[in-house]
Amino acid sequence: MTVVNQPVIETVRLSKSYRTGFRMKRVQALSELNLQVEQGEIFGFLGPNGAGKTTTIKILIGLAQPSSGFATVLGRAPRDPRVKRRVGFLPESPYFYEYLTAVEFLALTAQLSGVSRSEIPGRVRQMLKLVRMEHAAHQQMRGFSRGMLQRIGIAQALIHDPEVVILDEPMGGLDPIGRKEFRDIIVSLREQGKTVFFSTHILADVEMICDRVGIIVGGKMVEIGRLSEILTGEVESIEITLQGVSGKFRKGLERIAQRSIESGDLLLLTVKSEEDVERVLAIAREAQAKVRSIIPRSLTLEEFFMARVKSAGRNGGV
Amino acid sequence: MLNRIWGIAFNTFRESVRDRVLAALIVIAILVMASAKVIQPVALGEAEKIIKDLGLSAITLFCVLIAILVGGRIVYREVEKRTIYLLLARPVRRYEFIIGKYCGMMLVLGVSLVLMTAGFYLVLLLTGVKPEPRLLWAVLMTGFELAILTAVAVLFSTFVTPIASAVFTFVVYFIGHSTQLLRQLAAISPAPIVKFIGMFLYYVLPNLNNFNIRGDVVHNAPLNPLAMVLSIAYALVYTFTLLLIAIFVFNRRDF
Ligand SMILES: Nc1ncnc2c1ncn2[C@@H]1O[C@H](COP(=O)(O)OP(=O)(O)OP(=O)(O)O)[C@@H](O)[C@H]1O
Ligand SMILES: [Mg+2]
């Protein structure tokens, strides 16, 4: 068993560079990435395209070696077979042996993961049911759609009942219903005490199910923590909608507001602080305009994400 | 370990069996042997030898083609299609993967060899040639030649594309059957560099001529059991060495 307080997944100053192209130009895919995922957590690994998510995951699975720094899973090197027995993995846009049927493929993955022969058929059936693929159980996978492949991918990652599940963009290719089903699967994994690490760029999914998130940009971890800590819930801005503001008052209002949008006789103003709200309301009274709504808004993960990606870009991170 | 190697080997076998290329090559091989029926009336006295020689040569040629065309892509395809991620993410050691792939390919070749030999004996029966068991010795030696060639193909396919792997393996096959030429070249050449390269290749490349006993078998010449045992031992050592190199290369790779 894992010792309490020892992280299930850990990377320490993890760096990876690739040499590519004709002139063997060096690409720094990861630089000094630190990360810890505790037992029983759902950890969302967020980042724009090319940020280094897949690279990190490949190192955690033992498919690639770090250039410097190190990674451990369940307290051991990722390539240790004792670790792999307890880890489930779904690669990015997975592709499977198209000449196999879903059942044959899942049986093979179960066998390779050390599931005992007598348990294999039962496990395979259970997994097909979990990802709702029973109808295609005996079909060759060459005809499968992207979403069907993704479902089989999730099934093969869970076939040996792993303690740690590492998924690279698991929502890719899934329709909204599939995404919902998938979120339910992940949450049920947490209920079983398993640890889930997944990468994505779909923020809504992260907001709904993750305990903690890490944001990676240009190979560097720019933010890591509980969602509630990252998004403090503080009021970030206030939106005021006014109706019937005549032209001469408009200038003054637009000076106070950060942003203003006109539509018909409605004017939507976004302001920073309570005082600004007071000032806007004073002018509105003077202008005899109607106040339709005042809505405080807190920062969404999306806004936060965009802001972090942008600022990391400015600092030469990307 | 054996369980996992077998899993990978059987899957490799299943892949090839469900692929049309293999079936096509086996069918063509048997058709070529059957074409002996046409020569039969023409070549009177020599007909029997021609039919035997054609059949055994066809078996060798088409199995070599299978080893090169199918064998050359078995590792590469897994990397290119990224199915290998799913295998190596499991408690499968990299050497188990290479050995599994190799064994799977040998299983494919073994079955091909059996089917083609069965077809060959059928052709012998149909053309009224006595189906002597002695001919099987030639098939056996071909089997060991294929063991080497498949190891060459697997080794290449760990680091070059299937086409390059097929070309290189074919070159090895070709030179492997002309190693005596290399030695002669080294002996007569005045340039030391040519001498060196000639001798180097002579020792490094597999000597595949030893596995060709078709002439002796067909012409009822006496077989040399000691030479055959030595050749088989050579094949085993050579194959083992190549697989070790393939595993070494593969172990260090990033995906
Ligand atoms: N095998 C490789 N050879 C060379 N460069 C690579 C290799 N793999 C990744 N890279 C580079 O490393 C960087 C990070 O890539 P990575 O695939 O980890 O990004 P990602 O965060 O997974 O992106 P995406 O969201 O698009 O999947 C990129 O600049 C990429 O070009
Ligand atoms: Mg990726």
What level of helicity do the residues of chain B show? over 70%
**What is the mean pLDDT of chain A?**
87
Distance between the termini of chain B: 23 Å
> Strand order of the main beta sheet of chain A, please?
5-6-7-3-8-9
- Briefly note the structural class of the backbone of chain B: mainly alpha
Order of helices and strands of chain B: HHHHHHHHHHHHH
Most extensive chain contact?
A: A-B, 28 and 23 residues
| End-to-end distance of chain A | 39 Å
Low-confidence stretches of chain B: none
Instruction: Indicate the percent of residues in helices of chain A.
Output: 25-40%
- For the report, how would you describe the main beta sheet of chain B? none
Taken from the alpha-carbon principal axes, the silhouette of chain A is elongated
Cα-atom Rg of chain B, whole angstroms? Answer: 20 Å
Number of strands of chain A: 13
Q: Describe the main β-sheet of chain A briefly.
A: 6 strands, mixed
Domain count of chain B = 1
Helix count, DSSP H or I runs of 4 or more residues of chain A: 11
The helix count of chain B comes to 13
- The percentage of residues in β strands of chain A lies in 25-35%
Ions, cofactors and other ligands present here are:
adenosine-5'-triphosphate, magnesium ion
In short:
Helix content of chain A is 36%, strand content 29%.
Label this structure with key terms.
heterodimer, A: 318 residues, alpha/beta, six-stranded mixed beta sheet, four-stranded antiparallel beta sheet, 36% helix, 29% strand, B: 255 residues, mainly alpha, 0% strand, binds adenosine-5'-triphosphate, binds magnesium ion, membrane (chain B), transmembrane helix (chain B), ABC-type transporter activity (chain B), ABC transporter permease (chain B), transmembrane (chain B)
